[in-house]
Write the structure tokens for this entry.
Amino acid sequence: MGTTQLEPVPEPKYWHLRTVLSEALDSEFSVGEILPNERDLAARFGVARATLRQALEQLELEGRLQRRRGVGTTVAPPRVGVAVGTERHVWPGAADDAWQPADSTRSAPPAAVADALGTGPEQPVHTVRRSRVSQGRPVAAELLYIPDASVPDLTAIDTPSGPARARAVLRELQRLDLEGQDRAVELGSARAEDARELDRLPGAPVLVVTTRYTAEGRTAALSVATYRADTCRLTFGDSGGVEIHHGTDRQAS
């Protein structure tokens, strides 16, 4: 690689460098290729290593780069598309649901969840943990909170925990007539448990999608799904979908 001097521009130097680096990723590098070390890159563009690190961190946040311990900084693979919901309202665990149940426990939920469900602050609820994988890569983790009132006949099921228990809770939930559901999305930081499941560092930016399911005039279940912010682009509409894009290809679903 030769030396590329950045032109003076009316924007932060790291941001302009991020644009130049992004163009270089498209024209000079292939997926999985390891970038030169920071010293060589800083010399090529005539910038301080602190400026270079800011640009690299921004590209990593956008999903263009991956930093892997013991390997270095590599060009990230193209983003893959996943769907948050379907055109029709369905309970979690329906036949076309892409989530995989991992476990189910019974404990008191966070205070905000208890308020949304209308349960007491110390009243246990069923917490179903599910995960989502796309093209072999973890893309989301979910906690689904279900009060006892929504699954009254669950006491007859002997399985105490694990995927079988999770599937049993979801089957029982589907006995209710779903009246509606609504979603909200916000930017958050990965908790330690979510970070492990999503192969991210704790505190990494994530997209949190909260879904409230209503039946019998009340909140029957509450889902808190955490998506990798570096791979997900959320689109809401009739399809209620999520798309994951790479580069300039941003066609809506």
